[in-house]
Structures
1.
Amino acid sequence: MNTSSGKTALITGASSGIGYELTRCFAQDGHNVVMVANHEDKLQQAAQQIRTEFPLVTIQTVSVDLSRDGAADRLYSEVQDKGFQVDFLVNNAGFGEKGPFLENELDKELALIHLNVITLVTLTKRYLREMVSRGSGKILQVSSVAAFLPHPLLAVYAATKSFVLSFSESLQNEIKDTPVTITVLCPPPTETNFFEVANMENSKIANSSQVQAADEVAKAGYEGLLKGDARVLPTFVAKMYAAQGITLPDSVNAAIVHKQLEDVKK
């Protein structure tokens, strides 16, 4: 299908990786999309690619650094001013920072917490209220398989993703008597720019067969969102991580993950 449905998806972190592939999923089904990302040039390039592929849908862009104070509310106001009703909210934007907690820069970790947690909570609050009030809408929260395991060398990132999972599944219960649904996508290591931003290009896990294709992860998340699934573990690798978190002691999981996050020896 390639005709506009009149429904609109707001997707953060939409210029690359899972966010970009989710944008393609929505556009392919005729939904209009507000693509949100930090870097204007990359965002416009990605938006033009979507417009070329799906010329009958409306693609809007908002360039904003959602790791900054007040940025989520500014985004919300700008989308309101444009007159869009957001039928689908996709909280995808996020980043990580690899390294020992004692050595990592605090400012970067606080920005990470702001983007991965505070922005997600703010946008969820604003749009969930609207959706419940009108009796329609769906939210996709992008967590991670890191939510299920302790992650030495990615301690702050993994903690934020555990928050996303717990927060979202708590809200699922709170709104269970409404038509609105919240779906949590828990991707495994995926082919995105995450490894580069997190300084993980040389890690064992980034160079392993566990890394999955972004389009496959996005498609599973999109289909789960439409069905109203509570949780999406999009690949066998993702299911393996979740099972590992349940079956092995945290101390053992921490040791395993620490090894995976170490750099490949040259």
Note: The chain has a mean pLDDT of 93.
2.
Amino acid sequence: MPTTLIIVPSVPAAPDGDRLFMDIKALDGLTAYARGWPGPVRCLFRRGDRGTIAFGTSIAPADYPFDLVLVGDDPAADMSNFADAAVVLAAGDNHQDLQLVDAVSAPVVFIIEYTLATRLQITRLSMGVGLRAAKSLVWTIKTELRRRRTFRRSSGLQCNGTPAHAAYRRLAPNSLLYFDTRVPDALQIDAAQLAAKTAAMVAGDPLRIAFSGRLEPMKGADHLVKVAKALRNRGVPFSLDIYGDGSLRAAIVAEIAASGLDGQVAVKGPVPFDTVLVPKMIGEVDLFLCCHRQADPSCTYLETLSCGVPIVGYDNAAFRGVVELGDVGIAVPVDDPAAAAAAIADLASDRPRLVRMAGTAAKVGAAHSFEKVFATRLAHLREIAGL
């Protein structure tokens, strides 16, 4: 009986001499699959450009507990890679992987993150209006129809976030909801750290706010300073640290200076996740500001909660699903920085509520740690493979 798990990641890998340059998050996930799977694991990475891998590292493939194979755009071009497959896990968001459900004899499970509404929104945000945007929207809709037909012929879905689960779960015979995160059990905020955080909250010091992520319009990064200005106008004592990089970084820095917020708002740039960002979120942040316009299932949500940090964010469908897990945040209307500032001001003046939210955030984050999420996903794949 075949026992090999075949994974076709959504991100590429790039040759690096006799090594490979790979996305760090993908590497962590694949290692978790390999450690928990009762058989060999083979990963078919599309050959990509190193410059497109934002958070990468150079590795020796022999050092890892899975086989790495570089393929072209069509993962089914060499069917020998699938000959011993017990189950195939592919990216339902990648239209090139949809063909696998017909090409491979083994059960095919798709990971799906984006809904049609989110795809269309991203197109509008990135392309605006015009003939090129219209053609892209038509192609997106046609591909969505194909995606839905494919899911009906699949053996299962792993849906990242509630929007994808709500949109697609009924199409496949076995659908799983999960919330993506990179925070393992060992990095979750502990009782002593939570006590120190909440003590700082009730001390009445200026509220310590943070944002981390890509500084792009679809992430609402252009509204961060607008929220800060609205907080200053309300007389709320606060600081805002912005972690990340992107096309809006220079504009954000200029807006901070022009608004006279240099002493309160700082762009820190990208920092290592586990050694810098997580410790700072645990020890130095009271509240996370998330102006995401689109409903993509950002791992930022659960990772933030794992640090005992509540969220004030725009009311997109993905964040709405996170808030339903417990009293971990406040959703405000999308594209309304004044409403975000009002919600933050309410928490600044109601520290007991902020403390309660931090405690709930820590519990929800711990319940969805990296290990727990992957254990659930592995059990789902084993059920479908019959192992």
Note: The first strand starts at residue 4 and ends at 7.
3.
Amino acid sequence: MIIETPGLYKGISNEDYHRSPGISNSGIRLILDCPKIYYYRYLSGEYERKESADKKIGTAVHTLVLEPDTFFDRYLIVDAMPTKPNRRSTYETRRKYEDFITSAGGREILTEDDYLQAGLMANNIINHAAFKKVKGTGCFEDSIMWLDPDSGAPLRTRPDFYNDFLIIDIKTAKDVRRAAFARHIYEYGYHSQAAMACDGLTAATGIPYNMVVLFAVAKEPPYLVQPYVLKGQALEQGRADYKKGAAIYQQCLITNTWPGYEEAILDIDLPAYAYRSNDNE
């Protein structure tokens, strides 16, 4: 079921959510960089989206934490992935791979090692004292579409979890220490994603949301967990960023023009840290 009108929707698959009209945070980040790249990846139909190994494990962690009863309906665990055929592959290799994909029945495929890693990461979140305290009863993976009141752009968000007063988002990262994860938040636009979740839920429910708790879990053993509250100025900056992207998106839709980079020769220099003192030479 593709979302076609503003509202809050339950039971929408992740695939249908991403196929629905409107722009989400991942698109906002891309269109702020270059509308032409956004068009190619999301609207041209020419781009084949491939999920990275880290992204696949992160999605599995989400499912194990928030919807564990659905995990084995969504994932197939195997010893190892079969070789994906190419143009030089034999008929036998192609047939084995096709039979393997058919046996998966549409489920995502995880190796046993990936499943073990995702399970350890998920368990550390589930057993974290702060997670037990704030999770309680709420809603998981609901999909929301609303219209930005400033630009009129259709926007989408899909919070991991929310109740009547807060939103929880689970994030995986190489380093979950405060300074490193703060850079991670900015680099991946988690502040704008959080602002979109707050504004989308407020638009859909009428309840004012102004706080997001990020549960950051490290990707490497011992898979430590550190929760952070994102609010105040960080959310305001995220709101400014996503609204700027929404305005660009809406203008591109109206004009059917998706600009690339500047058609000019630009000056460039080395980054500041590259200039070292030569006093000791």
Note: The beta strands are 7-9, 75-78, 108-111, 139-140, 143-147, 154-157, 161-162, 167-173, 211-218, 225-231.
4.
Amino acid sequence: MLQAFADAITIANHQNIDIYNPDSGEGYQRAPVTARVRKAARYYDDKQGRMPNPLLINIRKKDMDEQKVAVVVDVDQAGYENAVLQGGNWIGTGRIGFTDDLELWIYDGQHRAGGLNQLLGDHEGYENFPVPISLTLGLDPGEEMREFYEVNTNAAPVKTDLAWQLLTKMAEDDPELREMLAAEDRDWVTRAYAVVDELEKLDGPWRGCFQEANRRKTRGDGVTIPKPQFARSLKPVLDMPSFKRADAATVAVVINAYWTGIRMVMPEPFEEASDFVLQKGSGAVALHRVLPQVIEVVRSAGGRLGQPEGYAEVMRELPTLEGESVDNDGQRSIRSGADFWRVGSVASGFSGDAGRRRLSLLIQSRLPSPAETIQL
């Protein structure tokens, strides 16, 4: 395996990708996604070609056997050849030459390679751009497939909590990034994180409840929900027209008043929050999905969005939610009030996005309609 550079036009002229064919069973690569190719092209163009990740490329054994490739090093050719024969290591500089009909098999980085192809077709000046590559010499297609499998199954992506935290931090100092996120309708992520940061400063139900990136949860720490999960649950609220341009501190005051109002009508789940799902994923997602309707009811009744009393009035029927639960002994019972939200009880059964959507609809059924409070 050699670390090298090749100009973009050489990569374009010699590349090949062994895409899996479901009819013949041959190949191993997934089919390219046009949107990802375009995104890679935009990234190369915006960064003036800077892409630190190398393409993983193989020159297959049959081409090596046919001597279509020559490696010439600047110093210590014998040392290089001995390392190849003995399976050892060698450090130095040199050049790789090959025939015009040689195929460079890309086993990781096909969308980046496709992005380069698009740039070469759309813009001038990229022909000689040096593309970093990691080049294996002499793998057969089966070994190449195993390399593809290892790369794509063992690589661990950055966890969402850290990725979103980094995105928020970068956007603070980068106006172009903020504009790009807004244009792609992804600025809600950074706005949501800003709201959570402001919410943590307020005296209310959520202080000390968020799990930060790279921080382990410990018994009795009061943490109930990962920060990105709570931030994601805020999207329906942040998408409301009145909150599109609202500053984070204002939105945090509204969120805090809403949950304080909920605590006023049903205090028990907040006293031992870890024993209930109300302040975990299911509760946060479902209750934020209904918050836009709650806000409209509070407004139509003349209430102020920063005062918890208006929310408590709208949510007064929340304790009437009930459902059937099965305990460890297999006994069925109807649970309502705080018990509805206890871990292992009814609310715990509303898992996944579909379950949380059903839970929000169930909550919604206990809310007054904004139309009921409108006076003409």
Note: Residues 2-154 form one domain.
